[in-house]
Design brief:
about 210 residues; alpha/beta; Rossmann fold; six-stranded parallel β-sheet; 8 helices; 6 strands; binds adenosine-5'-triphosphate
């Protein structure tokens, strides 16, 4: 079965928290993890760096490995990218019977009901939830909590076979890192080497990004 694990994000820049999540996903699902960098994120202020710079940092972080891949579908567009539209396109490519998994942090989970066409997402994909410090899934609004508790499973082998519509909580100790903090640290001339892969740090310095 050709299942598909998608890790969507702005990756502005990619950080060690993202990389640790991807490594854990690869270990648990024993499957390639595909990073899906956003084009212009609809819910965030515009990035200070070019899409090609975010993409290059992602490529530098991943290096040459079969464990990870990058899907450039969204980042190559210069319009808003709604997740349901992207996942509909991917669904057309992989067919209706292929399990699809979309990875989100618990900060994104608790606002899932604000995503465009959010209920249609359950016909397109499963969700893998990664706990994020400070964001408790009990804080979901009622309509979302209802969907979540109907759909969540702790049975990994059952989840791996599901084509769409289920949630699974990844057993993972979160790293307290965010791209926002990294961008702020750079502005304040603070060291970021603890937070990003070495090649990404070098690229940021060489290209004077986020100042
Ligand atoms: P920003 O600070 O700019 O909002 P970010 O650090 O949240 O960025 P994104 O690229 O937006 O990074 O994250 C992509 C996905 O990874 C999101 O679903 C987010 O919730 C999740 N994520 C990012 N960092 C972590 C982390 N440290 N722990 C758990 N999940 C994370």
């Amino acid at each position: 079965m050709k299942e598909c694990i998608l890790f969507g994000g702005t990756f502005d820049p990619i950080h060690n928290g993202h990389m640790a999540i991807a490594a854990k996903l690869h270990e648990v699902f024993n499957h390639q993890v595909t990073f899906l960098p956003t084009g212009i994120p609809p819910y965030k202020p515009p990035s200070q760096v070019l899409p090609i710079e975010r993409l290059t940092m992602l490529q530098l972080a991943i290096g040459y490995t079969d464990k990870f891949a990058i899907d450039t579908l969204e980042i190559e567009q210069d319009t808003f990218c709604y997740t349901y539209k992207t996942l509909s396109l991917i669904r057309q490519q992989i067919g209706i019977a292929t399990p699809l998994f979309f990875v989100i942090g618990s900060d994104s989970l608790i606002t899932l009901n604000t995503w465009d066409n959010w209920q249609s997402l359950f016909n397109l994909t499963n969700f893998i939830i990664v706990h994020r410090t400070g964001y408790n899934s009990n804080n979901m609004p009622l309509e979302l909590r209802h969907e979540f508790y109907q759909r969540v499973t702790s049975n990994l082998s059952e989840f791996k076979k599901s084509t769409s519509g289920k949630f699974y909580l990844l057993d993972f100790n979160p790293m307290n890192i965010s791209s926002t903090k990294i961008r702020l640290d750079i502005k304040h001339n603070l060291a970021i080497k603890k937070y990003v892969p070495l090649k990404v740090q070098q690229y940021i310095l060489e290209h004077n990004l986020y100042h």
